[in-house]
Design brief:
about 375 residues; homodimer; 9-stranded mixed beta sheet; globular; 13 helices
Chain lengths: ~375, ~375
């Protein structure tokens, strides 16, 4: 199997767009990615579209209707918050198979049209949502408290994640929020589910992102080596065990398994990774995932955020885009927006938030119910 | 790229099961297919799950929860009535890529829980549904009338499709209906949208089907050659042009393009095909698709149904399972149920409805909004 490359990628600015449809946003992201690759929609041989809220409403085909229908195969994928990453991975598999040389991957979500409350019940167990214990904030609050109990992680340490990611997003003109949040502001914000205040929960926004994957042969033929980004690993993993309902999945185990498989596929270790876009759906999650992705030992996540090493300028910047906490989290778009962010850094095109000298980075998403996708990207 | 084989496949009896969930039905179909292959769920390396109604509710993962979670990648695909065929094709691509040797593909639909009315609006243009012109029966009624105008096709000829497919399903213990429908009964049934009476419309049922795809290497290693079925072609196609909304797709063009590509990939022609399971969502559609799939010349579909050649015992039996008209049409399950039917015939295991001597067959589905999938299967 020859290598697969990202040769074009972009995203729309995340925000609240009640008047924009999934096809409108998805088509814009696709056009931006096509422009980035200097290709047209007629060059694409297949479309993979990740979306959650309207997965059963032919989202990919509607995007093609906007872009100019060409009759290519369209596959709609749904894997909760990993829907976009799943679409990207299916595109990668399709290139690997040798069937296609150029595949468009789009992730998109219109959160404002009724999806906001879906978190409570999308695992098919509505009772949990009704009684509150199965909502995402309460679940990640519990996971944070478990971390505190085991390792003494403090509220301040969780809050620092939000401070860092909001700071990062001040340098990202595609982020929803672009303001600093001093730690007092984060800690004094409305309490959602202890220890999570409102500023420690990801932002519900609408958005879309796109990436074009390409075979090695075609990439060279098109002369796109200069900006091509190699996919060194693409892993999708579901939970090997779920206690009693799918929403209560074990986000830790599934991430550890996926990260381990990704490092193995890429032939690299955590020390080789120079930036990470990880699934900070809540501030507690970012600290858990430091340990799950192996960038610090178990129990050291609090110390790692204290050290500043995961801030831009540190040893391994995490969520330089602003992350889900401040850039925003349009479910189906997030996985591909992460790809865009890491690709932009390893291409050295990230402007003020550029991770200096970055050549290799990782993306990570988890979807409740359950999926975890990890990708490792490297400058070709 | 080496060949890909179906080494196990089965389906649950289609019917109305208001108390059964998608995970319940999907898991049963998966277990039946695993039993057919004499393999266990732990042998599967990935799951592709096609479903329409609950595509955004982690259907594949819920099935894995029932089967015994193993942590394998789970991908949920949604492509309207082609959702199951799309899942099967993604499994085929995954084997082609060399990433996996054994992949489980499941198609499932619970139609009774609110999906019945979805046909009117699932292309995202609810207005069409409200005014009636965009409902599926009226669309396929119009297409039938166009055939009548161009070629003089008669109401009797359309009705004969239903007579034939109901007859076939009397021999299929997995079909929803198992009774003969004399032509007078078909023509005198409640008129839905001229020329379609109720018995000329597909049956809304719940159901699930599963197929296990396998690499050539693994198939030989497992010693499964005796019953293995080779996938000679797998094509997915979207509409190259849609007039004004996706529900009004051009089912004819998309089928012609997909069939042409499938014949090319398989290196065979219509004369080589010995049975077809095609998308008889309405009686008019079957006649259209005779021409679209190339088994008769344009305008000759009426004569072909009159000739009896597409009936069991004829030259090229079509929908020997009973088809969507009588076996039933649980959207996401249909594509894989077709695979099961053709595989069963080329394995010579179809009992009373066996197409004598069949070695090669074709499956065809169209999904509004728009997708067409065509597969050609041959006894290994």
């Amino acid at each position: 199997m020859s290598d697969v490359y990202v040769i074009g990628t972009d995203m729309i600015r995340f925000g609240r767009f009640p008047d924009r449809s999934v096809e409108d946003m998805g088509a814009e992201a696709a056009l931006l990615a096509l422009k980035d690759a200097e290709l047209g929609i007629r060059d694409m041989q297949a479309l993979y579209c990740g979306n959650m809220g309207e997965a059963n409403r032919s989202v990919g085909q509607r995007i093609m209707q906007h872009l100019g229908q060409t009759g290519i195969p369209v596959v709609n994928t749904a894997n909760a918050c990993a829907s976009g990453a799943t679409a990207f991975r299916e595109g990668w598999i399709a290139i690997k198979s040798g069937l296609y040389d150029l595949v468009l991957c789009v992730g998109v979500e219109q959160m404002g049209r009724g999806l906001l409350g879906a978190g409570a019940s999308y695992a098919g167990v509505p009772t949990e949502g009704l009684v509150g214990s199965g909502t995402m904030p309460s679940m990640f609050a519990s996971l944070g408290m478990e971390h505190t109990r085991k390792y003494g992680t403090t509220l301040e340490q969780f809050a620092k994640v939000s401070v860092k990611n909001h700071h990062h997003s001040t340098m990202n003109d595609k982020a929803m929020y672009r303001f600093e949040t001093p730690i007092e502001q984060v800690m004094d914000a409305e309490m959602i589910s202890y220890p999570l205040t409102k500023l420690m929960c990801s932002v519900n926004v609408d958005g879309a992102a796109a990436a074009i994957v390409c075979s090695e042969r075609k990439m060279k033929q098109l002369g796109l080596m200069a900006r091509a980004v190699r996919v060194r690993a693409s892993i999708l993993q579901s939970d090997p065990y779920t206690p009693h309902n799918l929403a209560m999945m074990d986000f830790n185990t599934v991430t550890r398994l996926a990260a381990g498989a990704a490092y193995e596929m890429a032939g690299v270790g955590p020390d080789d990774i120079e930036l990470i876009e990880l699934h900070d759906c809540f501030a507690t999650a970012e600290l858990m995932h430091y340990e799950n992705l192996g960038i610090c030992a178990d129990g050291d996540a609090g110390a790692l955020i204290d050290s500043g090493e995961t801030r831009l300028g540190g040893r391994i910047p995490v969520n330089v885009s602003g992350g889900l906490l401040s850039k925003g989290h349009p479910l189906g778009a997030t996985g591909i927006a992460n790809i865009y962010e890491v690709a932009t850094h390893v291409r050295r095109e990230a402007g003020a938030r550029q991770v200096p000298g970055a050549r290799i980075g990782m993306t990570h998403v988890v979807g409740a119910g359950s999926s975890c996708a990890v990708h490792i990207l490297e400058k070709a």
